[in-house]
What we know:
29% of the residues are buried. The protein folds into 6 domains: 2-147, no CATH class; 290-348, no CATH class; 371-536, P-loop containing nucleotide triphosphate hydrolases (Rossmann fold, 3-Layer(aba) Sandwich); 546-646, Translation factors (Elongation Factor Tu (Ef-tu), domain 3); 652-765, 3-Layer(aba) Sandwich (Rossmann fold), CATH 3.40.50.10050; 769-865, Translation factors (Elongation Factor Tu (Ef-tu), domain 3, Beta Barrel), CATH 2.40.30.10. It is an alpha+beta fold. A 6-stranded mixed β-sheet has the order 8-9-7-10-11-12, with helices on both faces.
Amino acid sequence: xxxxxxxxxxxAVKERDDENSSxxxxxxxxxxxxxxxxxxxxxAERSHAAAxxxxxxxxxxDSHRLRGPVLVSKMELDxxxxxxxxxxxxxxxVVEELMxxxxxxxxxxxxxxxxxxxxxxxxxxxxxxxxxxxxxxNEIFRPHEVKLEGPKVVGKIDLPVExxxxxxxxxxxxxxxxxxxxxxxxxRIVSEGxxxxxQREGQQLQPKSxxxxxxxxxxxxxxxxxxxxxxxxEISMEDVEEKLKQTQARxxxxxxxxxxxxxxxxxxxxxxxEAKRKQEQEFAEQEKNHLRVSEFVTANELAGLMDVxxxxxxxxxxxxxxxVSINQRLDAETLTLVADExxxxxxxxxxxxxxxxxxxxxxxxxxxxxxxxxxVLGHVDHGKxxxxxxxxxxxxxxxxxxxxxxxxTAYSIAIGERRxxxxxxxxHEAFTAMRARGAELTDVAIIVVSAxxxxxxxxxxxxxQASLQNVRIVxxxxxxxxxxxxxxxxxxxxxxxxxxxxxxxxxxxxxxISAKYNKNxxxxxxxxxxxxxxxxxxxxxxxxxxxxxxxxxxxxxxxxVAWILVQNGTLRxxxxxxxxxxxxxxxxxxxxxxxxVTSAGPSTPVxxxxxxxxxxxxxxxxxxxxxxxxRDIASKVTNIRRVQEMRSRKHITLDEIGxxxxxxxxxxxxxxxKGDVDGSVEALSDSLIKLSTExxxxxxxxxxxxxxTESDVTMAATSNAVIIGFQVRPSGHAKKMADAxxxxxxxxxxxxxxxxxxxxxxxxxxxxxxxEEVTGTAEVLETYRISKVGTIAGSVVREGKISRGSKAxxxxxxxxxxxxxxxxxxxxxxxxxxxxxxxxxxxxxxxYNDIKVGDIIEAYVEVEVKRTL
Length: 869
């Protein structure tokens, strides 16, 4: 396959050469040429014919593809079809041209340029086969002997020559490696006085062994600047010392500059840190006087936040005209005024602010009338629960421990054809927070006042809380069936507190009733409904539910249970919910009668199961879009409460330590409180903390809802605490563990029983009070000095009796001059145990002989008296 390809290539080259030859001949005939120019043209054609033609034949395959069939040569055949051998011609000698020098090349290029200006010459192309040139068509072609020539130079154009940057050609050297040695040879600097001739300025040194051959300058190379070699002068010692001084000074200056730079950086760093420290101190000062509290904190909690005695807070409230106790919760206005008096600024960060997520107002077309919410408030044993039983036609009073209400309960009742929600509150003074939550939940407050007792402390407290919540008030004067009843006296007491009833020309409705005998109760309900109708109560049942937790507990079979009262929206089974620091989904709901329900509308009390913990009473309950939002809100509320708890924690001070040391017998009583519901636990804890005195500090280290567990026993063992259980019992393992660890567990069902028993225990912890009891007095009539005994006072007993071993005082002119004890007591010569009034005796005073006639001897004994709280 290669031979035909080569033949095709050769034929193509030959055809092109023929065309070039014919064209050249035509140009030669038409032009006027001279013999000299013809000779030059022939020489150029020979030189180009000898040059290789490889550049034009770089791709024979492409040439074969682009061109058609080409006649390469002709063969003469004989009669039998065999080729006739052609006559061979002797090859013409090929003249090899020597490489011209640089000057010759320049001259040749200039001459050719002159010739080409007159007429460009086109050389004839030839090819060489088997070492000879065969221009004829009848020549024999042998493919295996074809040798290709390079391209022929047809003409030349004088173009600007660019400098070629390449490697320097090696020069010949007489010795092997001479060129390399020359490149590496270093130019020597000849000093003065040596026999070697010095280099002049601007002249390069050349080795002696090499002849200088003049060459033509290269026009395309830029002349390099001549290197000037300076011959150093002889260095003297003075110059060396001077240079040394300069170097040392430069080093010293660098060192000093570096030290100065380092000092400057340290100074700047100190300034930055000082500014940052001042900023932190200013922020700390601002935060120190800035308190973040929730509304309705107690006076004791506020005192702990401000680090002042609680008596100062109570005194400030009294100056504002409010009588408060240590655990009474204060409203926002009172908190702000009290804090401002002590130089503090309050910020209310109640969790309910964060839970009120959907702040969009309801459209008027979505609002629907909702049932009213009534709360029954009043003093203990004034008939609140009896009134609720009469309205509900039930008997809750008979099932309550101690006959008093200790929980906040809500009922859904029917008044004719209308529905309403009734909330019963406890009346004991310990349940202040419960009454405050009841006033917050309600629309209309029914203040029950006994016609026998009149206004009591908890009655006044309930009236104040209802007024703070802007709740409408209806007074119910109960027990009018009693012979001691005096309703007019109650109305007079109300007027003294600026509560004028309608009978006396005021704005507050009042109804005299007898809850026990169901007398005038229906009239009371009519007045309550009238107040609710005036308010025009409405709610949007189409939105997400918003409610308030009024109780929570932990049920063994159902888990965490929250009693809530829906205030707006509708709560459905499966909703994502959040209450305080806990979240979850509604797994089940039960109404006030214990029946399961799937939804709860506005003003409906229900029990909700599904939270991951028991929320605090008073927490805002809300249904949200998804679980993620519920988790975020719960986490935010938890962080706020943690910070608030840390700030309200009162740390011991040096003054407190000094006070305890001065007392000498200071004690602490640690308690762990567990209860059935959160409201009862809170009320009991506040009441127990209130029992603290200057000598005994009551600390509630833990409180919670549910039965007493092993963890509670372990905590009590480590902190030396007493476990208080309110309407709960310990588990079996916890009881065994408490017996083994000798942990005291006290269980109660009535709150005042727990308070009184703990009060008695604290009184037992107090050291008894020592009192002096005077038994008798004697007057000194005569004194006797007896050797080895001392002075004996002959006395007569004026009052009481004088007993041996009693302590005595010597009173002279109404001033006690000495206190000691009796050393001897005799009647005549006999020892006497005691001497009664009107009898004479001899009395000796221990370690005292300066007894004078007329002194009074007072005998007394020290008696220990049990202290009370």
